């Protein structure tokens, strides 16, 4: 389905509203007025419904929203991880780029990025068929350290945290992209070796280290 960019933005905003525990989107929360043709476009395709001025998903719309948010977050990952464009410039370009990632292209980008589970802001990327296939084949390239078994070794791909203190703590341990990491113990805490040093961290921190097998 080819929707206008504004219509896709509405679907994304509604998806995020649901993700944050809401049931509907208040059009006042986004900078698209309620009488914008994008709303008529979405109701015309039976993707949303408007009740008492609020926007609700219809089931087909939720699926469309899921794919739209998936493209958006994949575009963010591509901007930040591969093209190294960050901050507002990255956000803006991701918004432009996501609209180009339609059918088929999103799977290629997803595969190139090793089927990432989260966007750079830590929000979940809804998995596509490519992710399910890669998981079934066991070739999910990059996984959180928590999916490693003790004795398993890999290369650190990236650290996924918004918290600069955690980031500094990990960097001080030598947990940096490109370094080898050997998981020595996974319970009750995660003990790993980087270089010649061993460190122990809790599950929450281990979940933020992404490792290539
Ligand atoms: Zn994001
Ligand atoms: Zn995938």
Provide a descriptive summary of the structure in words:
The chain is built from eight helices and eight strands. It is an alpha+beta fold. The chain has two domains: 1-140, Arc Repressor Mutant, subunit A, CATH 1.10.10; 142-212, Ferrous iron transport protein A (FeoA) (SH3 type barrels). The longest helix is centred in the N-terminal third of the chain and has 24 residues, at 59-82. The protein binds zinc ion (2 copies). One zinc ion binds at residues 73, 76, 119-121, 123.
How would you concisely characterize the structure shown here?
The chain has 213 residues and is an alpha+beta fold. The chain has helices at 5-19, 37-44, 59-82, 87-98, 105-112, 129-137, 164-172, 203-206; strands at 48-51, 54-57, 142-144, 153-159, 180-185, 190-194, 197-201, 209-212. The chain is 42% helix and 18% strand.
Task: For this entry, give a set of tags.
213 residues; alpha+beta; Arc Repressor Mutant, subunit A; SH3 type barrels; 2 domains; six-stranded antiparallel β-sheet; two-stranded antiparallel ribbon; 8 helices; 8 strands; 42% helix; 18% strand; elongated; binds zinc ion
The 3D shape can be described as: elongated
Distance between the termini: 37 Å
Name the helicity range: 40-55%
Spatial extent as radius of gyration: 20 Å
Strand order of the largest sheet: 3-8-4-5-6-7
| Largest sheet composition | 6 strands, antiparallel
The CATH architecture assignment of the largest domain turns out to be Orthogonal Bundle
- Count of distinct strands: 8
Could you name the CATH homologous superfamily of the largest domain? Winged helix-like DNA-binding domain superfamily/Winged helix DNA-binding domain
- Determine the strand fraction and express it as a percent band: 15-25%
Q: What's the structural domain tally?
A: 2
Write the H/E string, N to C. Answer: HHEEHHHHEEHEEEHE
Quickly name the level 1 CATH class of the largest domain: Mainly Alpha
Number of helices: 8
Question: Which runs of at least 5 residues are low in confidence (pLDDT < 50)?
Answer: none
Q: Average pLDDT, to the nearest integer?
A: 87
- CATH fold group of the largest domain: Arc Repressor Mutant, subunit A
Structural class: alpha+beta
Q: Please identify the oligomeric state.
A: single chain
């Amino acid at each position: 389905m080819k929707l206008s960019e504004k219509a896709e933005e509405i679907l994304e905003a509604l998806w995020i509203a649901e993700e944050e525990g809401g049931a509907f989107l208040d059009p006042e929360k986004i900078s698209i007025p309620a009488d914008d043709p994008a709303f008529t476009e979405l109701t015309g395709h039976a993707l949303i419904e408007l009740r008492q001025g609020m926007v609700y998903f219809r089931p087909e719309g939720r699926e469309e929203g899921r794919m739209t948010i998936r493209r958006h977050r994949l575009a963010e990952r591509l901007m930040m991880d591969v093209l190294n464009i960050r901050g507002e410039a990255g956000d803006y370009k991701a918004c432009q780029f996501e609209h180009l990632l339609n059918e088929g292209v999103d799977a290629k980008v997803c595969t190139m990025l090793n089927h990432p589970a989260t966007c750079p802001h830590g929000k979940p990327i809804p998995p596509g068929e490519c992710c399910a296939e890669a998981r079934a084949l066991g070739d999910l390239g990059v996984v959180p350290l928590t999916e490693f078994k003790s004795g398993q070794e890999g290369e650190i791909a990236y650290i996924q945290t918004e918290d600069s203190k955690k980031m500094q703590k990990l960097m001080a341990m030598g947990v940096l992209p490109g370094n080898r990491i050997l998981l020595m113990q996974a319970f009750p805490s995660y003990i790993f070796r980087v270089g010649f040093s061993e460190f122990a961290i809790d599950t929450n921190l281990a979940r933020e280290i992404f490792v290539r097998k």
